[in-house]
Amino acid sequence: MAVVTPTSLNGPQPSDEQLLSDCRAGKASALDTLFQRYRHVAYRVAFRLLGNEADALDAVQDGFVKVLLHLERFEGRSSFKTWLLRVVSNASPDFGRQRRRREQLSKDELQVDAERESVQDEDSPCREIECRETRGLLNQALLELPEAQRRTFVLHVDGELSYREIAAVLRISVGTVMSRLFYARRKLRALLSERVTA
Amino acid sequence: MNNWSSKPTRRTNEQLLAAYVDGELSSEDRAYVEKLLSADVCAADEVDAQRALSRANARFWSQLEPPKPDAKRWKEVLAQIAGKVQQPTVQHNRRRLWRFSGALASAVAIAGTVLIGLVIVKSQQVSDVSTAPPSRPTITESFAVLAPHEIEIQSIRQADVPLVVVGEPPLRDGVKLMTYSDVKLDVVQADWDGMMPQVQTGSISGMPFIYAPLSRGP
After folding, report:
1. CB contact under 8 A, A182 and B89
2. Residue B27 distance to chain A (closest CA, Å)
3. How would you write the pLDDT of chain A (198 residues) with one tens digit per residue?
4. Which of A27, A92, A147, B74 could disulfide-link to A22, CB 3.0 to 4.6 Å?
């Protein structure tokens, strides 16, 4: 019989370093905790980059697998989260390409995704048609950004990474992060206003 | 029309405005931007527009949260991860010690592998002429190239230092001894984490060039 114990009642949470150490030792519970801790942020980043749930979950799965199979390379110079988001964001374009090859990604398809999401999301606070439409518009607009700008923007907004962390993830300068964010937001604004007024 | 050209610092105004919106500026740069904003209406408008799509606009982003996968899907993903991580893989074998007979008796622990496409353009130039073939056909295939810091050599004959060869097991065609000049970098493929490796080879680095054919594709 499984006994579920709220982890918050068990005192301080184990650090990422401790969990990684336990993962190396083959402790399944450590993997579970690590997954619970970072799955949402990894999923948000992947979803924004890919535009749909199925591919985003594939990217999250692939990211965790790659990271956990290469634990010996994690030297603690960056956080586990930064490391994971690097892998997820790098893998995402491949999943997107695979998907486009399979299904010829189109605006119609994104609308279908949005409709499907709305059905799944009945309990979400964002139930209004306006929210769904805005999310669909945002997904479309994001897909129209140059890939470098899109990744930078998503890592900042959805990955909640600082400029310095993004620079480390993408191996670019902090100044380049600044520029990409500026132009990404400017272009997103133009794309969104175009669609809203169209 | 904006007139942001008066900025004296090394950052562009675009960079500074983006960082200002995100609260990532030093106090000096922040003071500069605030001065700029008070004098330039266009810059102030741009900051407002940038702020609307910044992370600080939590209300906007909270409405646009991606749909949450249900618990069953998460469970499936975790099960997939656990299954793949727990399977023995080639990567797990990287730390295996290797021992070559004869001149090269090396035990190698390989921490990681960069996959690189290499085109062999020259024939083998091994100092031990007695074992070298008279000529070799051109081979085009992918190899794993390892940086010197990724291996640990426990024993090696001095004459073989420039010819150190290690491979990621299992090797498909055995081990080949090569020098820098025997290979030409053709295509560099992304590392396991998707990043493009910064590769230095041969006389550029002055370090031993290490490679071996892989039994699996890149």
Report:
1. no
2. 16
3. 333 444 444 567 888 888 988 888 888 899 999 999 999 999 999 998 888 899 999 999 999 998 888 877 776 667 889 999 998 988 766 665 656 555 554 554 555 455 555 444 444 545 556 677 777 888 888 888 998 999 999 999 999 999 999 998 888 889 899 999 999 999 998 988 876 665
4. A27
Beta bridge partners of B114: B145
Yes or no: is domain A15-105 CATH 1.10.1740.10? Answer: yes
> A126 and B65: CB-CB below 8 Å?
yes
User: Domains of chain B: which residue ranges?
Assistant: 9-63, 91-213
**Rounded distance between C-alpha atoms, residue A184 and residue A136, angstroms:** 17
A to B CB pairs, distance under 8 Å: 134
Tell me what ipTM this predicted complex has. 0.75
Residue A77 neighbours by CB under 8 Å, 6+ apart: none
Asked if A12 is an interface residue toward chain B (Cβ–Cβ < 8 A), one would say no
> Any alpha helices (H) in B22-115, and if so which ranges?
27-39, 41-52, 58-63, 71-86
Q: Which amino acid is at A78?
A: S
Q: Is B211 helix (H, G, I), strand (E, B) or coil?
A: strand
Contacts with A73 from chain B: Cβ below 8 Å: 111-112
Q: How far is A104 from chain B (nearest CA, A)?
A: 22
Interface test with A, best of B2, B12, B63, B94 (most A CBs within 10 A): B63
- Rounded to whole angstroms, the Cα distance separating B53 from A85 reads 21
> Could A44 and B65 be called an inter-chain contact, meaning their C-beta atoms sit closer than 8 Å?
yes
Nearest alpha carbon to residue A171 among B190, B61, B98, B210: B190
Are the beta carbons of B18 and A175 closer than 8 angstroms?
no
Interchain CB contact of A195 with B (< 8 Å): no
DSSP state of B66: P
A160/B55 CB distance under 8 A: yes
